Amino acid sequence: MDYRESEQRAPLKRVWKGMIPIELQLAASDAIELLASAVLPEPFQTFYMLIPRVGYLPFISGKVKERWLDPMLALSGSRVPSDQQIKETDIWFEYKGQALKWHYPIGLLYDMLVSDVHRGDAELPWSLTLHVRKLPTAKIIAQPNGQLMRDMFMAMIKEADFIRNGSTKRVMDLSKNDQMQFLDGLETHSYEKYFAIHSIIVPPTVDSRAPVQSSASSTSSGGQKARGAMQPKAIPVRFYMQTSGSLDDGAKDAPTSGAATTSAGGNGGGGNGLGATKQADIMQFHVSQVPVALYREGSSSELATVADAFKLCYGIADQTNDAFITNCACISHGVCVPWESPISWLADNFFYADCFLHMVVVGI
Amino acid sequence: MSEVTASSAAGATTADAVAAAAAITQPKKVVVKFRSIGNAPILKKSVYKISSAQRFQALIVFLRKELGYKAIEPLFVYVNSAFSPAPDETVYNLVRCFGLDNQLTINYATTPAWG
Known about the structure:
The complex is a heterodimer.
Chain A: H1 2-17, E1 19-26, H2 28-35, E2 47-52, H3 58-76, E3 92-95, E4 98-99, H4 106-113, E5 126-131, H5 146-165, H6 169-172, H7 176-188, H8 191-201, H9 215-226, E6 235-243, H10 246-264, H11 275-279, E7 284-292, H12 306-313, H13 323-327, E8 328-332, E9 335-336, H14 343-349, E10 357-363
Parallel strand pairs in A: 1-5, 6-10
Antiparallel strand pairs in A: 1-2, 3-4, 3-5, 6-7, 8-9, 8-10
Helix pairs in contact in A: 7-8
Chain B: H1 3-6, H2 11-25, E1 29-36, E2 47-51, H3 56-67, E3 76-79, H4 91-98, E4 103-109
Parallel strand pairs in B: 1-4
Antiparallel strand pairs in B: 1-2, 3-4
C-alpha cells in the first residue's frame, strides 16, 4: 500500500520539483546608469540560478539583488545616491523583448515564451535580461515584491477553491499558522510544508491511476472510484493560446491599455531605450479560463479529457471538430500533455502551486 | 462556430482561427453588478453593461471614476464576496467562472474585507 501510495504521488512530486536553470544579464541601459559602463566588472557579468517551475519571480528577486547586484555595486565602488538604490520592487525580467508577468508561475512563462518546448529543443539555461529601472507598468503589474506575490497567490488559491467547491470556505478556514506554512512552503519550495496544507484545501479527486493507458478502463472504473473521494464541482483550468497577435488582441487591448495608462500616469516613465515597450507585442496569448467538470456532459462515468476542456473553453460545440488536436500541442510543466488525458488525473498531478491547471496551446 | 472547421493548414493558423471563433462566441457585453460593503459609498447606478473583453483592471478604474476616488485612496474590489482577481484577468473569464446568468457581482470596500 505504501509503495503504491508513493508511486501514485510520483508524478506530482516530479512536477513540484521541476527546476529551470536561468542565466541573467543586466540590461545595458541599467548597467550604464548604475556603473557608467555597459560592461559589468568581472566576475559579475552573468548570474546563474536554478529556480523552481512552480515558483514566482518576486521570490527570487531578493536573492538576485543580494547575491549579484549588491556585491557588484559594493565591489565596483560605484556610488548610487541613496534615493536611487535598487529596490526589490523595481526588479523585473525580460525575455526577447517581452516583460515577464511576474504573477504567472515561472514554468508557465517558460512554456509560453520559449519556442519549441513541445519539440523538446528547449532553451537551457533560459537566458533572461534583468532590469532594475523603468518597470513597464502598462505590461506588468507594478510594485512586484514577495508580500504582494503572497497576497496575489492567496487570491488565486481562493479563486481555485471557489471553482472547485462553490465557496472559498476551505481556504478561509485555514488557521493563520497554516496559511503562513503554505506560503512559506511555496516561497522556499518546500514540498513537505506546502503539501501538508495543500491536502487540506484540495483532497485528491477521483482517479489517481496512470493518465492515458486505455480509454476503456477509464470509462468503466471512473465512476466507482468517485465514491470514496471528495468530488469537486469542477476543476479550474486555464488555456493560454498563442495567436499571431493582430487578430483579437488589437480589439482586446485597446480599452485595457487605456486603463493601464491611466493607472500608470503617476509614474511618467519616458520609455526611452526600453526594448520591451517597442517589441512587447511579438507574442500574444489568448487566455481562456473555464470550470471543467470531471465527467463529460451528461455522463456519470466518462471522464472529461483535455480536448473536452479545450472545446468547452473555446465554445467549439461540434464534437467531431478535432482539427486542433492534430494541429496544436498542449503543454504543461514543459511536457506535451496528450489531448485524451483525463482532467481528473491532471487535477491530481499536474496542477501548479495555485491549484490551477495552466496549459499552453501552440501550433505545431 | 463553423469558422474553426475550415483552417487546417498551419498550426498557428488553427490557433488563430480557434481564438477568433472564441472571440465570436463570446458575448460582447456582460452585466456587472457593483455592491458596496461597509462604509464604501453606494453608486447611484449599480448595474452596468460592460464589454466582456475588458480586464478586471479596467473595471477597477471605472469603479474609481464612478466613485470619484483618487488612485491613492484605498479601494478593495472582490468578486462574489470571496476573492480579488488579478488585474489582467478578463471580465469574460470571470463571468464564465463566477457569474450567474451572465452577470458578475463585484463587491467593493474601503478596508480589506475578505483578505
